């Protein structure tokens, strides 16, 4: 019998962060302080809450914690389905969706999504923030768990994350062809 693998420190941190965010979702004052983490000059207001989750500083982990926590405080509607590419696809208006289906050009969301995929290192965070704010405006829930993992992996496995998001956005219904 195989011994179950232990959770990594990052996975434990992630679980505790989401447990904290979900349990304090209705605390308007705390959520207001958490939203401050998305604004450079106000970031320090969220540090008392995010410090225990590694959310202080400019490391990739800290920026991931800050971004996800700030966005959750801004738009706490979450889902367990899909990745960020699927969220961006949900942002498409009908006209752009038709363009995408017929390969008749690139619309505004498609272009923003291409810019997102082209992001290097820290650029990803600002681009994610803008798209989640758009999702909030359209009442589209976010898979924050998956977003946290993907942002964390952006630093090391960028191509895998980009490919998964691109597949969800441009080819959500295609199945891999079976070998003959």
TrEMBL record:
It comes from the Bacteria. InterPro entries: CRISPR-assoc_prot_Cse2, Cse2_sf. This is CRISPR-associated protein, Cse2 family.
């Amino acid at each position: 019998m195989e011994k179950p693998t232990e959770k990594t420190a990052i996975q434990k941190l992630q679980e505790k962060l989401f447990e904290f965010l979900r349990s304090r979702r209705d605390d308007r004052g705390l959520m207001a302080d958490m939203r401050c983490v998305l604004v450079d000059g106000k970031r320090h207001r969220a540090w008392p809450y995010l410090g225990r989750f590694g959310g202080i500083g400019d490391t990739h982990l800290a920026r991931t914690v800050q971004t996800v926590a700030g966005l959750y405080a801004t738009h706490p509607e979450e889902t367990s389905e899909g990745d960020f590419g699927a969220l961006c696809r949900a942002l498409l208006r009908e006209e752009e969706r038709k363009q995408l289906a017929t390969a008749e050009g690139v619309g505004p969301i498609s272009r923003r999504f291409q810019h997102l995929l082209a992001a290097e290192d820290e650029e990803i965070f600002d681009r994610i923030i803008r798209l989640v704010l758009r999702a909030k405006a359209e009442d589209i829930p976010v898979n924050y768990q998956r977003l946290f993992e993907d942002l964390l992996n952006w630093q090391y496995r960028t191509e895998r994350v980009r490919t998964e998001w691109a597949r969800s956005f441009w080819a959500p219904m295609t199945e891999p062809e079976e070998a003959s």
